Fold these 3 entries.
Entry 1:
Amino acid sequence: MDRVVRWGVLATGGIAATFAEDLRSLPGSEVVAVASRTETSARAFAERFGIPRAYGDWASLAADDEVDVVYVATPHSAHREAAALCLEAGKHVLCEKAFTLNAREAEELVKLARDRGLFLMEAMWTYCDPVVRRMTELVRDGAIGDVRTVQADFGITGPFGAGHRLRDPALGGGALLDLGVYPVSFAQLLLGEPDRVQADALLSPEGVDLHTAMLLGWSEAGASALLNCSIVADTPRTASITGTKGRIDFPPGFFHPERFVLHRPGHDPEEFTAEGSGAAGEGLRGLQFEQAEVARALRAGETESPLVPLDGSLAVMRTLDAVRDRIGVRYPADG
């Protein structure tokens, strides 16, 4: 693909708007169509961002011959339905995280994409951020020795009332899939899939997690991760990686960082940044990095991204399932 990458945006919520804003900064890519469950919402979104076509149903977007790739921005309870619809219509897909409600749904999407030879990627923007990529290079080059611990947290306060989507089991509510996916993905970026999962949580009257603490373990690596997520507590939203020869600290906002600090015995602290990194800068939020990776992969004829591999997304979903099993959270879609 050597022409402009033509995007369709499926859903019109806040993250879809951020996506459309950031895409304006990416040369060689443009949003050409948007879809919502209502034509009114789709048209309002199209007018806001200068998008030529607006659809009041998802199927019309999936059938649009002028769309190369669809960004699925629905709540995660609809990710499987929306992404499968687009894949079945022959569209490449970038799907928001959490990838799906459970690992079974994720496996179905991955199989569908692989069977059809289509590109599919979870929108884990953290993995595409140049600062995070710089960190992983340092860790893999042995800058802090063997990783022994990872600590990360992502908590916010609403308040989120009983009618909010984050409190609705049918919509995959709770802290884990909305926020916990970040610290879990961060730990697994460095250590892969854990072989031990422990968790404890505070549950809402509706049966979703308001706050979850996780302890993940990797027997062969001799490593562990202490992770927290919450929709009732404003946590620091920091991360730290400790190895046998040093430590890396991320300031608040570790999931879209502008910098990190490397600490090693006998050395002054070293601060690392990366060109064009972080969410700030020209009003961008940081989604341009995942957008650029999708465009690069499509132009290269790749059906999976090496930065956000599908096997990695499946492994994260298995961990999230294991955490929900430990804390007793089930969704209607689990069956």
Entry 2:
Amino acid sequence: MNRRARGARTVLAGLAAALLLGACTGTGRPAEAPAPAPSAASPLAATAPTPQGLLLTADFGADTVTFVDPERGALASVPVGRAPYGLAVGADGRAWVATAEGLAVVDTRTRTRLARIPYRTGTGPVTDGEYRGGGMGVALSPDGARAYVGVNVPGTTGVLEVVDTATREVTAVVPVGRRPFDVDVSRDGSEVYVTGHDSFDLTVVAAGPLSPRRIEVAPYGTEGGLGSWLKPHYAVVRPSDGMLLLPFEGERLAVVDPRTGRTTIEPMTADTHQHGTALTADGRLLVVGTGPVEPGEGKGPSLTVRSPDGAERVYPLAGPHEDVAVSRDGRTAYVTGGYTRDGYWNGITVVELDTGATRRLPAGARPLGITVL
């Protein structure tokens, strides 16, 4: 059964709940207990400088970010605020972490929180969970002068808040789509792209005048509304031509031209609900597969490695995952075990991209966003 038919059936079955919650809802099954992670590495002394080459994760289940040795596991955590989601790290070593309470700033060299900048937009009570208000996707301008954070406002459209990184103040608020899962910036910094999960769109924001322009991205259509599973989640900007790449269901890759708004569709092969994305320096697209939307239909969790020519290798993963980062040499992927639905686990799967060999690392509680320091 193709995803169009499957999505329509899911909508009819769960429309009442979906109208309240939006998509990537639970399946109606009890949440699975987190799978145990391996033992953590020896912790860092509080006064020790942060070693080079660590990973940093946003711990959605622990209100922290965690520093992770890619060989040994978690080393230290820093409190940042309720339910951290996405993060971005600048050349100066400061991490910008989107939490439910505000945009936290962490010095990754000393492992200290420097600030937490409140959002200008009201988002309701500070809570946990996939549908909580507050920051989701976050990105930095190429010069590091501005942080852009997508803020979810439950029950209505979201906003993009622009933060001056020197003064640590919100300088502008731009309307965008519903539940802004991801924020990306063009290579020259002239445009910001916000993925609206529940509104089937990308909002293109000109970085100078901060004028928004909506592009619908719905390769399966929008008839499912809030109850549909077939929505955009994460995007990457292809350096070679500035196109935006958004995977759907391990079946379709939407290639969006932000200048014209035109979308072309390329086939994919993983046959799994897809979330996080990353690009290697040589242009390979990495996509996290979370498993079938409905039990027994579609394939399990995976990591797709897609070459620029469209050839794909699909590596199975044990259990759901959410986001992915890639090592600087392009040989290793780090896939977070958090996940915005049920069934998460508390760690990272390390995937060798040439062979598909995997191993697990402990990495905080329900890690979502991840970056390589």
Entry 3:
Amino acid sequence: MESHVQPKLIIHGGAGSSLHGKGGLEAVRRSLHTVVEFVYSLLLSGATASEAVVQGCQMLEDNPRFNAGTGSVLQSDGQIRMSASLMDGASGRFSGVINISRVKNPIELAQFLQNSPDRVLSDFGSAELAREMQLPSYNALTDLRLQEWIQERQDNFQSTMANVVAEPEILETSNAGRGTIGVVALDAYARVAAGTSTGGKGFERIGRVSDSAMPAGNYATSNAGVSCTGIGEDIIDECLAPRIVVRVTDGMSLKEAMQRSFGEAHQNKRDLGAIALDVSGALAWGKTSEILLAAYHDGEKIGDTLEWTGNELIGYC
């Protein structure tokens, strides 16, 4: 295949309430920009959109600051259960794992399942697959997440959700956060892919299923790709990712599709965010929450949304 398209890339590390202090902001910016820089270089050297998405998700899963992979939040029983999905727009295939424990990179299992007749597995099936793939057992627990859980347990699980970014100062406050990571890429061959991974809400009922391993929260076609973050139930209720992608497929510009979809989400009092790109190379992001931790490469430079606190629902370039 001949490459003829300028690759584009957008990633996120969650959405939620304000970042604590400038130190938190700069640390998160460094983390996101490092991933964008590395993954964009892969796209420039000919990586497919799916390969780039998986690599980006792995890097974000491995960063204990974000709620996915290492640094995932604990559920009500003190266990970590992670979910992740990958959708390749070129093949039109969605694959994912739901509530998997003891693996380092849930996105790897989603990638493996792309070529399987059974493409979405829940907890037992995911664990069985990890054994078949001979993935080493891995403990994703960090001290900060454990402290967060212990503190919350002392408060009898008052919080609806754990914090979006794991930072020491956060333990003093319990403002809710909505942590997920996601990557959407357009490669040099005009293919689109999206990946999303999460540790869940934190403190949730055992067996709760996140939007991250559903098309509702992660969707791509040959026209566009979207990864969502925020309150999973709100994303599922809006069916947000497919809603945006279908609108683009039906002829709306990405900007219009985002504007319309986020207008509806805002009206419905949803708490969520999303990153998106289309096959023409347009990039967009949106939020109904206070902040969205997103960064992107527009082909010329890296930008981010960390200081975007305005009331407008979407941004684009």
